[in-house]
Amino acid sequence: MRRRAVDFRRPVRRSQDKQTKSRSPISQKSFRNRVTETLNITEEMLSPNSITRQLSDQISLAKAFVVIAKESNNLQFAWELSAQIRNSQVLLSDAAIRRSPLSTGESETAIRDMALLLYQAQQLHYDSATMIMRLKAKIQSLEEQSNAVSEKSSKYGQIAAEEVPKSLYCLGVRLTDGWYKSSTIQRQLTEGRRIAAKLTDNNLYHFCVFSDNILATSVVVNSTALNSDAPEDIVFHLVTDEVNYAPMKAWFSLNSFRGVTVEVQKFEDFSWLNASYVPVLKQLQDSDTQNYYFSGNNDNGRTPIKYRNPKYLSMLNHLRFYIPEVFPELKKVVFLDDDVVVQKDLSPLFSINMNSNVNGAVETCMETFHRYHKYLNYSHPLIRTHFDPDACGWAFGMNIFDLVEWRKRNVTGIYHYWQENNVDRTLWKLGTLPPGLLTFYGLTEPLDPKWHVLGLGYTNVEPELIEKGAVLHFNGNSKPWLKIGMEKYKPLWDKYVDYTNTLMQQCNVH
C-alpha cells in the first residue's frame, strides 16, 4: 500500500512540475498583476482604516512639530522626531516598491513610537492652536523679510539705473573740453548752418530725441542711419539740457552718420518753457511736491521708490507733450526714446494713414494689466467718468505724431488740464505714460506691433519678435549701457557703438 501510494503521487508530482515549469513566466506575471490590482494607492490613502494613511498623517504632523521644536530651541526633541519620520518613510517606501499594503504587524512599532512623540509634543504645548499661531507668525515674518528684500532690490536697481557710469561721465567731460578748445568743431558747425533749411523741410523724415545721454542718443541716430534706405533724407532733432549741450554738440559735429542731418538744442533756450505755462514747472515750486520726489519723508516710506524718481519731473521727460512748440514748422515727427535701437527703415511710418488721429503707437493690451485701469485711479470721479477702464494701453518710445492735428485739437491744452488736476497725485502716480493715456485718449492710431518691440530692459522677449521688430526698446532698469543690462540683449545695442573711437577708448567705454 505504501509503495503504491508513493508510485501514485510521483507521476502526478512530475506532471505538475512540468506544467509549472512550462507556465512559470505567465504565472509570475499574473501574480504580479493580481497584486497590483489589489493595491489601489488612492483608495488606500482615502480609507479611514488604512495604515498607510495613518502613517502619512503622523509624518505630516511630525514635520510641523519639528519646525516648532527647532524654533523653541528644543533640538534634541526635533532630532528624535526627524529620526522617527525617516523610519516611517522607509516603511512607506518599502510598501510602494513591493506594491502591497502595509500590514499591522510591520507598522505597529512605528505607529506606536510616533504616537508617543506626538503626545510628548502636545505636552510641550505643541498643540494645533499653538502650532497654527506660530506658523502664522513665521509666515508673517518671512513675508516681511521678503518684502524688505524686494524693496531693497528695487531701490538698488533704481539707483543703479539712475547713476551715470564713470565712462560716460568721462566722455562728456572730454567732449566739453574739446568743444571749447577745438576750432575744427566750430568750423564744422559753421558749415552745418548751410543745411539749416533741412530742419524745417516737411518733405524730409524728421525724428526727435530728448535726452541727456550722449552715447545712448548716438546709438539711436547711428542705428536709424545704418538701417535707412535714404539717410540723407533724415533729420534728427536732439534736445538736451545745459550741462550736456556742449558735449552733445561736439559729439555730433565730430562724427558722421551716413549723411543724416543732426540738430542739437537745449531746452533752457525755449522762452515759452516757464512755470506760468508748464504745470510741471509750477509744481516743482511747490514744497509738498519737492518733499515727495526729493526727500520721501512725508508718508513714512509707504510709496515705493519707483514712484518717487525725480526724472518724472524732468523737462526732458515731459517735452514729448510740447513737440509742436519745440518744432513749430514741422507737420509730422517720429518721437524716439534714447533707450531704443532701430533695425529697420522707418520712412514708411510717415505715409501711414492716421485716420485724423494725433498719435500713432503700438498697443500693449495683449494682457489685461496693460489696460487703462492698470495706470489710473478709477476711484476718482474724474477718471471714472471720462475713461473706459478696459481701454487699450499703448507705448511711448516710438510714436508718429501728426502735428497738424495736434495743434488743431489743442492736445497740449488737454495735457495741461490733466496735469493741473493731478497736483495732489490722486489721478496717477508714475511717469509720463498715464498723462499720455489721458491726453491722447481717442486720438491714438494703433500701429502694427512689429514697429515697436518692448521689454528688452526687464524681461525675456521672443526671438521672432526681436528679429521682425523695427524698433527695439530697452525699457526697464537694465539699460544696455549699464553693468546691470541684460547680457543676452546687449549685442543688439553694442553693434551700433564705435568702441574704436579714440575718446571711447580713453574713457574706457566698453
UniProtKB/TrEMBL annotation:
Any GO MF annotation of the entry: polygalacturonate 4-alpha-galacturonosyltransferase activity
Keyword field contains Cell wall biogenesis/degradation: yes
Span list, region Disordered: 1-28
Membrane topology of the entry: Single-pass type II membrane protein
Coiled-coil intervals: none
InterPro entries: GAUT, Glyco_trans_8, Nucleotide-diphossugar_trans
Cellular compartments annotated: Golgi apparatus membrane
Signal peptide interval: none
Pathway linked to the protein: Glycan metabolism; pectin biosynthesis
GO biological process, one term: cell wall pectin metabolic process
EC main group: transferase
EC number: 2.4.1.-
Stated family: Belongs to the glycosyltransferase 8 family.
Record protein name field: Hexosyltransferase
Species: Papaver somniferum
